[in-house]
Predict the structure.
Amino acid sequence: MIYVPGLFIALTALWLALSGHGEAFMLGLAAASVCLSLILTMRLRLMGREASPYHRLAPMARYAVWLMGEIVKSNLAVLHTIIEPSARLRPRLVALDADGRSELATALFANSITLTPGTVTLEAARDGLLVHSLHEGADEHEEFAPMAAKSLLAADGRG
Amino acid sequence: MLEAIAWIGSAFIIAAVGLSIAGAVGVLRFPDVYTRIHAASITDTGAASLMTLGMLLMAGLSPAAIKLCIVWLFIMLTSPAAAHALAGAAFGSGHRPILGDPRRPSEDET
């Protein structure tokens, strides 16, 4: 089980960062709680490649940075719609194909859409997403294509 | 120097307050529940991020900074789940969104 030491290190680092205590008694409590968490995780059979996608950390981090940029851009777009009296709303529904994504990639894509102001996922299913969008795009599928491709690359490792 | 960074942090927090107010104005101005979710997500993402950034600058290098990062991460993970639950519940219970230009509702309703 290669994932046990990884989770042990992560839990210990989280405990140290959150508490900041160094006394022996506190460290003993920390060791006990970390061990209990490890045992419970193993008993629930949550340990594994899917629950700890270390191999996807670097692409996920790159995707997160790109997504932050998108969030800033769409924040400004929705802000403009709110404070500009003449701005027009043209809400619409867009159906997007799943394109044979894994569940992780679908979840990442659907959550990225919802996190970006101006678009929210109404329904996420295996065969596709239904998205509500605040603004009229030039081409509705073109608009979501970069996020679809990048989230697929980050979660599934293919483009 | 530290003083100046704390002032920049305060500026971020004031900007975040502005974004929160804009989000609230949008919630009042927009016509239906789905468009209002878009307005509220400005508060969820933009205002929350600016607020955390401002507090990070004011906290400096300290354990509080790590906690702020973790708080920000949780907001970013949970707010889309909440927004999706709200939108999905509205859609699932048969509430249909206004489509097209709300000021001319009869034009391209589908």
The CA atoms of residues 111 and 121 of chain A lie 8 Å apart.
